[in-house]
Amino acid sequence: MSPIRVPFVASDFAHWPPFSGAPNAHPKARSESVSCIEATLVAHAIKAGSVSPLTGGANRPGLELQWRTAMVQSSLTAVGHRWSRSASYDHLDPSEKTSLSYFLGLAMASLVAEEVLGLEATAHADVVLRMLGRPIPAKERPDLIGFHPSPNGPVTPTNGFGRALIEAKGRSQGFSASALAEAKKQLADAPAVIAQLVGPGSLDVAVEAFFDRKRGRAHSVWSAHVLDPDRDHAVDSDLADDEFRALTVAGSLQSIALGIAELRADVGAPERGPLDGLTSVVLPRTDTEVGIPTPMFEHLIAQPGPFESADDLVRFTGQLLEVISMPDYLSRSFESPADSGGRQSFARLGSGLCVRTAPFGEGDAGPEAGVVEPPGVPVAFPDRVVRDNSVNEFEHRTSEGQPAPSRALNMSIEAARAEFNGTRIVSE
Q1: Between the CA atoms of 153, 154, 159 and 162, what dihedral angle is there, to the nearest 10 degrees?
Q2: Cα 61 to the chain's mean position, in Å?
Q3: pLDDT one-digit tens code per residue, 354-371
Q4: Residue 301's Cα: distance from chain center in Å?
């Protein structure tokens, strides 16, 4: 299974890569592509825009993991070495396509931000505002914030590291100059509470995802235009770099961690999943497995909602960064199911999120639900590389495993937490 190439045009960036400090040799427009296996695409789709942990009411993050996975897998199909619109996407009515194109726009923005621009993680701005107990603006606002952890980039007025503010647009048809202009406007007019998260000197990025259908081409190609509007926000940030980084990673993964907890509690999962060192679950009625390094998982589900004080934020930040700084956090070897001829793919994002899936539309549905524990062989995840458009991903053959019992997903988050807290998760 060869990686799929996602083409994009990047324009108006003063530096390329953006946080390298190197002058951009082609600032007006440069055409490139980034490789993306199925698991990487699913990983960005399930975390982009997720807002469930802190919205109140009856949250169902386990179901959210399922529908986000289903949405991207049913909407895109591999044609050659490109993603194209699926037949099911084409058969939707215009209103449905509008909602779906927004979702795919968020997934593309996350993909570009992390795999091309080199951000460690991206999180929906609304999630981070809720974690801080701050109001959500009623007006239109940028979608994502991100953090670049490398100290080698240019130092901005308030950030020794790099912060980013990202607006995503999605189109069900071809490129729209007006949609990109609207994205630029939303970045320029970001509400003060959003601008205060990133502070002055942040990298603003507008990302438009669309389906490019050039003359003579039989299929449309999922593509992106990425633009730096060269804006600056006059509002100072009240968050230290460590706090901003911790909030971005936590905002990216907390809903996924709660979804994993809900599904594991529901199916009575064993103490250790098939990927050693991860707390993971196979999404019901799919062959897709989602996992988070166990120390990060335990830390995220222990934080139930908004911080009650500045001291709580400082304490949470220190504990989470201690997890991130573990020597084996991003470089450890994981146990992967043994080879039985079924082609699978694995992806690992910089924040630690891991996804295993089979090629879209190929093979059987896999386990009905739950986590399986077949015999394994060590698999090392390589360090992340972005410079030559390669990404941190690889392909592997795995066994199907044995299905686990399933019952209706009717547990609340509180019940899932209670059941998880009574279970010892093993991490070697």
Answers
A1: -40
A2: 15
A3: 998 875 543 333 333 333
A4: 18
